[in-house]
């Protein structure tokens, strides 16, 4: 820090922030990487340029940005701190370990259409929230849009507002300008003082145009030339510049770029909705031309029955079993989007694990579809058959894999059983059972060897080789916990049988996406890390296709004989657009012939809803849509809602006042922040996080103030569930180390004493503790009978009795707010209400079956719903499965060969 201003600032901030290095210089501020000493975290410390600070005035600036300090939104970079030291103004924001949109555009020039639209909709979501709170950004541009995990964070709210209030003449005297000419609205370019939210929509339209076209709508050699074009020229149609841009995206972008604010969208939400509405047309453009059979990104969409007919006829040329389409010329690549009838719609797999598998002979594929009385089961789709066929005995199956001869399928099902089912008939058989529950955190998977044996990734025990008969088992790998490994997962055996690709799941994060790809020498058992990523599959011709933590799909050359990577990795983003819900893993498969099947992006969104006992449904808030929500929890007085929100960059906790007002974001880092519980007085929240190398409980004030603090855990096992009782002040913990029988319920009383008490500890696994409002009864689920059922014990003297409530399966128990009923999720996917008598003895009445919950999020290990005092249920509705989720690429190898240089 040679600059004397920086030196004075560093001295003044000593004890609070330690400036480490300069990150960059912008038009208004210099940005430094600093360490927040109090919280031991990196932050971005921005120092306003002295001449700008002199014009605006330090106190005026600090007063203005107070407005933005209260903006709490998943796509807005929050403000941590601000201040002034000897006339030097600074403000502190989170340090984003990613890149700006400008960085990505510099590197790629044009973004995949789906990426560009998603980023624009996320920025629109942030702008809409800010506009509702009276804040206009005024300087939207790629430099102010940060990308974390591929998703958008809008930075620098309030700075342009503070500068604008000084007056343009005073700004001009300093040689500084407000806004960036390339992204200025016409009214901004003409210096109008009174501008509204529609100027931000114009700037966002410019940004989206540049993401799609590779250049902004108006460019010139000087700022004056750019402004002249903004005021007089019309942007070219995006569909003329890039054929893959859908007509509605082109129409929406150009409407945002209208000269008159009145001709633009009224709100950011309207802009975002138009981007997601295929039939949207800009006023004056007329009806959009019919798109025929061409769909997103130039793919061709066909129904599976038609696909069977076309393949049976050879597509007039034939689909080669060697990969690619052949005819009178050389092999070529063919992309087919599959349309499914409603009764056969694909579904996301259990635990977010992969669900797709291509038959080795190229005859069809397996996917997860609707089941009977369950969320999903496997379906077999043959190309030469008119309909898919459900496979009996595959309920809740995930990670299916065909045997080498295509006659059987191995798959994983809860609770982490490896099963095999024959496609010629018969029941599925259990090969092995680890008892492991959380596949998403610890990883699992199965692969077939050429000799017919299976390799099973067990999660905690490493990789097992199981003989075709199932009698002989040999451990291939051992988890190297000393070097930070949590588990070995997602195996893929190389065609030559010499090695197997696996994912090394890191202890640093609970999610499987945080790890690396390794190759295992099957002769020696040696594990050699080779790539940063996960879910690697071998592609014929000598390549590996794998995913990164942000969902990017990569390809790299690989020598299966030497078990070595032989070249540089190349992104396949415009070829494979994975579902956001499985981005960390990638729900895709590659056949031995070199064909590809995958879930396309856009499917994994949910919304939080109120559900009446009759099943009638209504939205809770527009802020609780179009993201992945989980573990909704009402405050003790019912006025606030805490919920985990995942927009692609990890689960973060937010508290939302239900009567209105800005949400409060509690967490800003980590991949897992969920399973939260409120303190009995509603002042604090405790939740499970992956901030350390194990599942750990943390707490913070519910209003967002104060410091984040870990909760002292009284047991060496990990904590995976919580319950905080109003009676007695007990904080219950559901412990588990993913070994059979180790899911027990223990408790402590924070602030009362440090004694640890074991409430339920049996050879079975106890999950989801729930204490009645009067503190007299503890409900939980247990698998002691061989299936999960609901049990109740007296509390806190749990040894005085045990009562089984459910008889046909049950999970996720929850008491009504008055304690008069006990709810649970039955095995037939309905909420069941059991009346409880008021006496000293536990007296359950006749159960009532309420509404169907098959469409709502479920989590047997913990509760994923809540209930209000008026009897309404708070549920998380999963998005209705789209009919066009699955894409097949015949001849995928050709595409990889054309992109990757060995």
Distinctive features:
alpha+beta, 902 residues, 33% strand, Transferase(Phosphotransferase), domain 1, Phosphorylase Kinase, domain 1, globular
Topology:
Elements: H1 4-12, E1 17-25, E2 29-36, E3 41-48, H2 50-56, H3 58-69, E4 81-85, E5 88-94, E6 99-100, H4 101-108, H5 113-132, E7 145-148, E8 151-154, H6 159-164, H7 168-174, H8 186-189, H9 198-213, H10 223-232, H11 238-241, H12 247-256, H13 268-275, E9 300-302, H14 304-312, E10 334-338, E11 357-358, E12 364-369, E13 377-382, E14 389-390, E15 398-402, E16 408-413, E17 417-422, E18 429-433, H15 439-442, E19 445-448, E20 454-457, E21 463-466, E22 473-475, E23 485-493, E24 499-506, E25 515-521, E26 527-532, E27 534-539, E28 543-547, E29 553-559, E30 564-565, E31 570-571, E32 588-590, E33 596-599, E34 606-611, E35 617-619, E36 628-634, E37 640-646, E38 651-657, E39 664-665, E40 673-678, E41 684-689, E42 696-701, E43 709-710, E44 718-724, E45 731-736, E46 744-749, E47 753-760, E48 766-771, E49 777-782, E50 789-794, E51 803-804, E52 810-815, E53 821-826, E54 830-835, E55 848-852, E56 866-867, E57 873-878, E58 886-890, H16 892-899
Helix pairs in contact: 5-9, 5-13, 9-12
